[in-house]
């Protein structure tokens, strides 16, 4: 399904003059910081861009046509030079005191995009006004309100911020788009377990985890923090039997979620090791030391050399090995784990932290070189 960014113009793409609130000359033309780099990234990721703007009284003596189209053509020429192409540009010329049926927040100008299938989880309205956020609400996508002191939102609106999110600048917009673009939700239900997982690999390093296994919750929280994920994980399993089914199915769910998010491998770093800079690839945890390396190769496999001598968190050394083996297999990546030390708790903690660091490195992307990281052209 296609996904769209429905973008306001004045105050969102261009700085809005506080006196007339109209960009009616080249002297008043100023792009907001970060606009071009974010829109270029969005186009590379497959977003379709649609500009929708209210231009009060355009074509009347108060706002002659020639004062608008010069700056507008300059904006489009700059975008074109940066590889930014607009799928559609829609302008309503009515005045706010005499609105046409097409004036925002009316969705009528956007009907050609809304009548077909649209990915509403990835689509957004981006603007600096209440009308932009009302438009987002009416078409069923999330709004990103670029805070503008000239146009504060009505006090108390909306009751729930599920409708929109405040953003300070275009760098923050790109971060939020990236988090949503590389997001997945997964449910796994068997006669033995129920697992619900939400994962954004370019997130905030935060986790909400409840599996019924306290030590595993702690390890996943560490993993998400060091990987830079936003992770929500809930699992209910037959712990009255033992930990095996819950640990295994959580590994399956996380691996499958990562595999989904690796379907798009453009610009991917692919390789990751547990430490930076390159001279230090080890992760210490008191007396324990772990070395972790991953290759997002599309081929799942585990090399295990972790000196666990006893059960940790109620799970045996062989069960922990099985967990990582399951994770690598379902995630379709190669995983090398080596750890030495005296305390098995410290060993596993070092391994989970190292895995987070390695995955964070391997998931890095260079959008200026959106190629598959393989001479074969495929992973």
Question: Could you list some keywords that capture this structure?
Answer:
379 residues, alpha/beta, Rossmann fold, Ribosomal Protein S5, domain 2, six-stranded parallel β-sheet, five-stranded mixed β-sheet, 31% helix
Task: Give a short summary of the structure.
The chain contains 9 helices and 15 strands. The chain has 379 residues and is α/β, with parallel strands linked by helices.
Question: Any overview of this molecule?
Answer:
The structure is a single chain. With 379 residues, the protein is an alpha/beta fold. The chain folds into 2 domains: 176 residues, HAD superfamily/HAD-like (Rossmann fold, 3-Layer(aba) Sandwich), CATH 3.40.50.1000; 179 residues, 2-Layer Sandwich (Ribosomal Protein S5, domain 2), CATH 3.30.230. Helix content is 31%, strand content 23%. A 6-stranded parallel sheet has the order 3-2-1-4-5-6, with helices on both faces. Helix 1 packs parallel to helix 5.
């Amino acid at each position: 399904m296609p996904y769209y960014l429905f973008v306001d113009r004045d105050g969102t793409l261009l700085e809005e003059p506080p006196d007339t609130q109209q960009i009616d000359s080249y002297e008043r033309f100023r792009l907001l910081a970060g606009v071009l780099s974010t829109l270029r990234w969005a186009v590379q990721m497959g977003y379709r861009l649609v500009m929708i703007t209210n231009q009060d009284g355009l074509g009347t003596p108060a706002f002659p046509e020639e004062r608008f189209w010069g700056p507008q053509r300059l904006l489009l020429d700059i975008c074109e030079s940066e590889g930014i192409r607009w799928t559609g540009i829609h302008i309503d010329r009515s005045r706010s005191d005499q609105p046409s049926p097409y004036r925002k927040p009316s969705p009528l100008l956007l009907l050609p995009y809304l009548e077909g299938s649209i990915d509403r989880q990835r689509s957004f309205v981006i603007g600096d006004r209440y009308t932009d956020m009302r438009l987002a609400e009416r078409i069923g996508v999330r709004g990103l309100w670029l805070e503008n002191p000239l146009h504060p939102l009505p006090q108390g609106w909306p009751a729930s911020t599920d409708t929109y999110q405040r953003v300070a600048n275009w760098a923050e917009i790109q971060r939020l788009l990236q988090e949503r673009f590389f997001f997945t939700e997964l449910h796994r239900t068997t006669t033995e377990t129920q697992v619900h997982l939400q994962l954004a690999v370019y997130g905030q390093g935060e986790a909400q985890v409840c599996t019924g296994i306290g030590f595993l919750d702690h390890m996943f929280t560490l993993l998400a923090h060091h990987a830079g994920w936003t992770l929500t994980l809930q699992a209910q399993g037959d712990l009255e039997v033992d930990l095996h089914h819950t640990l295994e199915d959580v590994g399956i769910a996380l691996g499958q979620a990562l595999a989904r998010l690796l379907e798009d491998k453009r610009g991917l770093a692919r390789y990751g090791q547990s430490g930076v800079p390159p001279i230090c690839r080890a992760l210490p945890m008191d007396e324990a030391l772990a070395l972790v390396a991953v290759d997002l190769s599309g081929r799942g496999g585990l090399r295990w050399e972790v000196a666990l001598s006893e059960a940790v968190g109620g799970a045996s050394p062989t069960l922990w090995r099985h967990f990582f083996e399951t994770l690598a297999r379902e995630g379709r990546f190669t995983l090398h784990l080596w750890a030495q030390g005296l305390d098995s708790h410290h060993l596993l903690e070092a391994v989970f932290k190292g895995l987070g660091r390695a995955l964070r490195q391997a998931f890095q992307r260079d959008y200026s070189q959106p190629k598959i990281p393989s001479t074969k052209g495929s992973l």
